[in-house]
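INTERNAL AUDIT FORM
Audit reference: QA-55
Scope: verify that the stored structure record matches its stored sequence.
Auditor: D.O.
Record contents follow.
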Amino acid sequence: MRVLGVDPGLTRCGVAVVDGGTGRKVTCVAVDTVRTPVEAALAERLLAVSDFVEGWLDLHKPDVVAVERVFSQYNVQTAMGTAQAGGVVAVAAARRGLKVEFHTPSEVKAAVTGSGRADKAQVTAMVMRLLRLTERPGTADAADALALAICHIWRAPMRSRLEEAERRAAELARVHKARLAAATKARKAGGTKP
C-alpha cells in the first residue's frame, strides 16, 4: 500500500509518501514541506498547497491519502487555515478517485510511539527509527506527514476488518428484523395474539 500523508497547514504543510510492506515494514518514498508566505492572499496560499499536492499525487500515485484531522486548537484562525488546507488536499484526492482518511493527532502519536501524548521530538525520533532514516525530515510538519502515512498503513487492515464486521452485523440485523416482522404478521393473520 502506498500512502500520501499530509499534515495540513497554510504556512507549512508536511507531505510524505510511504510504502507499506508485509507486517509492519514501512519505507519512505519522499517527504517535503510546502511553504506559503503569510502575507499572500488566502486563495493564493491554498492554490500553492493544492498545486504541490496535485503534483505529488500525479507523480507518486498513492493508493490512499491520510490527512491529519483538525481536532482542537485554541487559535481559531490557525484552525480554519489548517482545515482549509486539509480540504484542498481532500478535493485533489477525490478528483483522482482516491480514498481520503482522516486521523487525529493522538491516533497518529499512539500508532507511531505507543503514546497518544507523545511530543513532536518523540514522534520524529520514532519516525526516523521506523523508516531507518539517517537524517531528520526537514520540518516537524514533514515528520508528522510521515507519521500519518505510517499510522494509516498500520491501521488500515484493522479498519477494513472492522468495516466488514459492521457490514455483516447490519446485514444480520436486517435479516432478523425481516424475520421478526414476518412472524408478527403471520401471527396476526392467524388470529393469535403475540
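Auditor finding: record pair retrieved intact. Strands lie at 2-7, 12-20, 26-35, 64-68, 99-103.
Action required: none
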